[in-house]
Amino acid sequence: MTQEELDKMEKKALEQFTTGKSLFGKDGAFAPLLQNFLDKALEAEMEAHLGEDERSKGNKRNGKGSKTLKTGVGTFDIKTPQDRHSSFDPEIVKKRQTILADNLSDKIIGLYGLGMSYRDICAHIKEMYDTEISHSVLTEITDRIIPDIKAWQRRPLDAMYCIVWLDAMHYKVKVEGKVRHRAIYNILGIDRNGYKEVLGMYISESEGANFWLQVLTDLNNRGLKDILIACTDNLKGFTEAILSIFPRTDVQLCIVHQIRNSLKYVASKDQKEFMRDLKLVYRAIGKGEAEDELLKLEEKWGKKYPVVIRSWNDNWEHLSSYFGYSAPIRKIIYTTNAVEGFHRQVRKVTKTKGAFTSDMALMKLIYLATMNIKKKWTSPLQNWATTAQQLFIKFEGRMPLDLSTSPAGGTPRRGGGADRV
């Protein structure tokens, strides 16, 4: 590029900048500059490649090839030098590389992680950078996070988590031309410092206690040896699966799930009165008072709704675990609201999807959504200092209490960005 051409480009860039026009994309001033830089960089790489050793073997230049390169400042053609032995492998623009700049790839992955479809991403990239991206190229770019997903799924866990919620989300995936049901098993934990962490995500064809047993075994193999409190829905066999791997865990069944399941079998005309009586059970001051109210509930409704009352009695041991804790801890553990809140945030990203093209397409999007959500988890649970002390007393010898403090007198910050307790 001559000095005259550079002067023209500088003038054009200044005009576009002062008038608010984009310096990128179609007719942007930056594209020719990058094109010129790449052409010269490739020439320099060829010169370095054709050193004395290569020339002694008879290798020399053999013309130039041309290919279209998509970049963050637009799409243009570059000329790649070639050598007679075809041994030249450039670094700045590699062979068969058609998309340049990690920032464009990162931008695409970021848009995908926000729930945008491939079609919408293509339109956005075209509008912003005047660059056409095919669906196959987008798939190749988003597939780059698969190793990260697998590494994240296999990462070691802490030996102990104070509270763990276990629940599943349900989606549809296309398998061999047919739409199949898939359950995503999510495990949300609270570590000893009060911070949220998604311990794992697993895909299965349906939700069931047998698969949960496999999930719990995997967590155990990754280093998790003890869970103080596990909060689950009322899935049959779930409690047994947890206790078979973590026998000392205090299991709390979700009260909200139990209520929903109960109301399915109560006539609509009785539901309001039944709920008024039922609230006296699960909102009681203590377990003894709750059992008295449960007995009254059975006396009043037992003959009319025996299945409902039997369900409360059969599951009472694990429905009533939360009565052994103070009010702040009860509020945390008596429902699976914590993991359901996480699920609501994920669904904001996945709600536009009908059926995913594969299990990995589903996992990629939920993984990216999870990574975005966890950026907000920079502080421990509210009043965690008090909660941690109560857990330390109740689970003597199992709950390590870190008494070291930061200079300001708070709990040491985690990962450099967390607020003190």
Automatic annotation (TrEMBL):
GO terms for molecular function: DNA binding; transposase activity. InterPro entries: Transposase_mutator. Keywords: DNA recombination, DNA-binding, Transposable element, Transposition. NCBIfam families: transpos_IS256 (NF033543). Residues 49-76 are annotated as: Disordered. This is Mutator family transposase. The keyword DNA-binding applies. It comes from Cerina litoralis. It comes from the Bacteria. Pfam families: Transposase_mut. GO terms for biological process: DNA transposition. The lineage of its organism: Bacteria, Pseudomonadati, Bacteroidota, Flavobacteriia, Flavobacteriales. Required for the transposition of the insertion element. Belongs to the transposase mutator family.
